[in-house]
Amino acid sequence: MTQTTNVVGKPLDRVDGVAKVTGKARYAGEYPEAGLLHASVVSSTIARGRVRSIDASQALQLPGVVAVLHHANRPRISSYDDDYSDADSAEGSPFRPLFNDRVLYSGQPLALVVAESLELARHAGALVRIDYSEEPHQTDLFAVLDHTHPAPAQTPEPRGDFAGHYAQAAVRVDATYDTPIEHHNPMEPHASTVFYKAGDSLEIHDKTQGTQNCQDYLHKVFGLPKQNIRVLAAFVGGAFGSGLRPQYQLPLAVMAALHLKRSVRLALTRQQMFTFGYRPRTQQRLRLGAAADGKLLAIAHDALGQTSRFEDFTEHLVEWSGMLYRCDNVALGYRLAPLDVYTPLDMRAPGAASGVLALECAMDELACAANLDPLQLRRRNFASDNGIDGIPYSSKELLACYDQGAARFGWGKRTPKPRSMREGNQLIGWGVAGGVWEALQMKASAKACFDSCGHLTVSSATTDIGTGTYTVMTQIAADAAGVLPEDVTFLLGDSSLPTAPLQGGSFTVSSVGSAVQQACQILRTKVLELARQNFPEIAATPAENVAFAQGYLQAGKHRIAIASIVATAKDGELQVQIDAEPGAGRQPFSTATHSAVFVEVHVDEDLGTIKVMRVVSAVAAGRVVNPKTARSQILGGVVWGLGMALQEETQTDHELGRILNHNLAEYHIPVHADIADIEVMFVEEHDDIVNDLGSKGVGEIGVVGVAAAVANAVYHATGKRVRAFPITLDKVL
Ligand code: MOS
Fold first, then answer.
1. Catalytic residue at 581?
2. In terms of Cα–Cα distance, which of 198, 177, 192 is closest to 288?
3. Residue 629 clears pLDDT 50, i.e. is over it
């Protein structure tokens, strides 16, 4: 059957765009119901110890306050760690909100006030008195450098002989980089609205990246049958990993709803958005040894990350140093230090954002030490195989990223010496870095069905966290079924739909998209069979001479509207549900996306202020389904990377064991005035190995490498190498 591509690859507007900008799109905390109760969390003010007593009498005296739940009076919940684990759990014993009197971190939820209005719940929360027995705490990673243990993750075995080759190398770099804690801070705070229905049946609107993950978690924690729990997330106002695990507002809202047999909403405050997962603080030592011509001979990447006392959070922090460049002698190490804090959590390009930052800064230092252009150094060390598993990449157009990005940026006009480019008192710096992220595919299911008017409804339980999933799935479905995108409705964000993985890891297009494509292709075959039965003029036309496009079946000179074929079907006949697995063809290959990021900074010589004037990000991510939404993903990633380089830092008062800047006034992220020119380029990358779509995902590659490119540009401008992030003006002066 001929496939006519119509909309995949086109910059379609978001199909949910109008709903979003007109306020019709409802988010988890916006669903109304008469009589809905509002809950508010009372958070711990100490970092470690026990709750001696909780006095809620004053709060309960207020008319309209319905309940104050805490560990001593809460309804029954599961007591087993395992029941609290979820699809993105770290190793260990997951946090169990209101479980017992133990205080594990500052900001821990200790009581839940339920009242007739939000204002009342908050006010009543302020009247709850908690008496603690405090214990000494430790929240400072740098104070426990001697109390670390190996990360339980599979850090790749060393290959070759690092020490020997490093010792003999003509050029060496040994540098240590520090990255701070960062919080996700999506615009939409975490919220759950739990609609209680007779017989303990719950319909829940939750801010999550995985409705089925939440459903499964609630099923285990509360012992409710799964069919009694429906979790919905039609719209999600950003997440970046913060919604990969069910956060504590969900079980707390459910606990209150089951206890009171009433509908309950719980939305966290912006400050409480700093009371669960985050990107962990790291310290990373990079040792690079190279021949005089820049060929890498030895790489060691030793990282330390922080974790909680109850779980060992790990991320792919050091692997990138064993795969981005060709090198035979590699040693990777990764250790963890437990602290009296909440467990870290995956945050956009988890591991790579911090790990590649260190590697790509070290590569810049190596280029300087070897007196080579940093781009030339990277070209010279290009790897077409993934050195960690020793197998080739399915595609890797990184050299094209270097070439096309450099041409667009004008890299050839760079003078290599630091402080050699200036405009008045503005020191000008040009920096470059590479990026890499994995291109995974997970098992996913989708259902496609035509109604008698020829309208196609396709569904899967995946979410759209702002990435454009509604839109790209509509495009994939339209092309695979041969209909117009306006004749397609894509449903998602509902645990009752066909199984889908968490939206994360940049694998939604490859995973859910493959299921959607296959379901719609099979559906199209059924339409053709139906057409042959009911339209005699095409009964004899061979399948390869039939094309589906834009709502019509074209067979030779015959053109039949798909709607009129579908109208001849019996009820339920044109419905296909399929489970898509990663293709076996992927097995012999390593799959990844790559990028090259070029940055120009202006540093004020007197004030030390840094302004990023231009960014060119050249990305190789296979086939781009929607250049508009994909560009937005990369733009967002670049902005995030600029923040990572220059602004973002969660600061802790280690005396109190408590986060200091838990609000958007003091937790600095880039604002409009911080952002100048950002250009996104997708280089051509053909890959028919990853999946039939040829698509690798763009959710995370955009942030990787950006902060390193900024840091390298700052060095080029000033001659000063800042290795502790973010690069604030006090460190530059
Ligand atoms: Mo992303 S950290 O996989 O949402």
1. no
2. 177
3. yes
**551 C-beta closer than 6 A to ligand 1:** no
**Could you tell me the two tokens for 93?**
């014993």
State both tokens at 119.
């204002």
H/E stretch holding 122: helix 118-126
- Which among 470, 518, 462, 509 is positioned nearest to 490, based on CA atoms? 470
Residues 417-455 have pLDDT tens digits of 999 999 999 999 999 999 999 999 999 999 999 998 889
Task: Record the tokens describing residue 232, joined without a space.
Answer: 């919905």
| Per-residue pLDDT tens digits for 571-592 | 778 999 999 999 999 999 999 9
Q: Which residues contact 217 (CB under 8 A, 6 or more apart)?
A: 84, 86, 246, 250, 251
Residue 293 tokens, joined = 């011509």
Q: With a 6 A CB cut-off, is 355 part of the ligand 1 pocket?
A: no
Token code pair at residue 14: 């978001």
Residue matched to tokens 């470059």? 432
Higher pLDDT, 550 or 249: 249
Task: Give the residue, by CA position, lying nearest to ligand 1 atom 3.
Answer: 504
Structure tokens of 208? 């999550």
Using the predicted structure, report yes or no on whether residue 325 has a pLDDT greater than 60. yes
Neighbours of 150 (CB within 10 A): 11
What's the gap in Å between 240 CA and the centre of ligand 1? Answer: 5
What's the pLDDT tens digit per position in 558-568?
A: 999 999 999 99
pLDDT of residue 1: 47
Using the atom order of ligand 1, give the atom closest to the CA of residue 240: 4
How far apart are the C-alpha atoms of 34 and 204, rounded to whole Å? Answer: 16
Report the candidate in 440, 441, 458 with the shortest Cα–Cα distance to residue 449: 458
Give the Å distance between the CA of 423 and the centre of ligand 1.
Answer: 40
- Whether residue 300 is predicted with pLDDT greater than 70 in this model: the reply is yes
Q: Residue 277 and residue 290: Cα distance in Å, rounded? A: 38
**For residue 468, which amino acid is it?**
G
φ, ψ at 88 (rounded to 5°): -125, 25
Closest ligand 1 atom to the C-alpha of 345? Answer: 2
The pLDDT score that the predictor gives to residue 4 is 56
